[in-house]
Design a protein that fits this description.
Largest sheet: 3 strands, antiparallel
Strand content: 5-15%
Number of strands: 7
CATH topology of the largest domain: Methane Monooxygenase Hydroxylase, Chain G, domain 1
Distance between the termini: 46 Å
Radius of gyration: 22 Å
Structural class: alpha+beta
CATH architecture of the largest domain: Up-down Bundle
Number of domains: 3
Strand order of the largest sheet: 2-3-4
Length: about 190
């Protein structure tokens, strides 16, 4: 299995598994490898420059989580544009709206938000009275998001021989259908 770990902070995507670049000047820049968020022409979001690491056990995953977490930016932040837009996208999906206000975060999550994936939401909340407003907001997001209906599909990459066989069989099926139509049996 391959694992990636990224951070979206102030509309900037960075790779948390990238090796440090000693040529950069400040200590924060040394730990941050910027990643480009693009679309592949088929409507899928692609992250260019994101490191993938192969893992073989839960311990490998925990080690990567520790390494990546140490590079995360941690600070008290106000509710930002990404989270507000995420809320708007969740509302639009639940209400079956035709317009989606996508930005970096919601583009990144687009397949998970009402598309072809099975999605699990983990709402991290605090029992502290100091965090009450943030906790209520998080629970509200999770409650609204649970009403999004996805249609999961298997994400299969076909090898060339398998794809050729599939295309050949599809061509034969279409020829047979055409033959039936011409003979009046279809």
């Amino acid at each position: 299995m391959k694992v990636t770990f990224l951070e979206l902070y102030n509309e900037e995507v960075t790779d948390l598994l990238a090796q440090e670049d000693s040529s950069r000047s400040s200590s924060e820049d040394k730990q941050k490898k910027h990643v480009s968020l693009m679309e592949d022409g088929k409507g899928c979001v692609v992250l260019r420059g994101l490191e993938e690491e192969v893992v073989y056990s839960a311990n490998d995953i925990y080690a990567l989580l520790e390494r990546g977490s140490s590079k995360r930016r941690t600070a008290d932040t106000l509710l930002n544009k990404s989270l507000l837009t995420l809320g708007r996208v969740i509302n639009a999906l639940v209400e079956h709206s035709s317009h989606m206000p996508y930005i970096e975060l919601t583009r990144l999550l687009r397949d998970s938000l009402g598309r072809k994936t099975e999605t699990c939401i983990i709402a991290t909340i605090s029992p502290s009275a100091h965090s009450l407003e943030e906790t209520l907001s998080t629970l509200d997001y999770a409650y609204r998001a649970k009403n999004i209906k996805n249609k999961p599909e298997a994400n299969q990459k076909l090898s060339k021989p398998v794809l050729l066989i599939y295309l050949y069989l599809e061509l034969e099926r279409m020829k047979e259908g055409l033959h039936k139509c011409k003979s009046g049996k279809g």
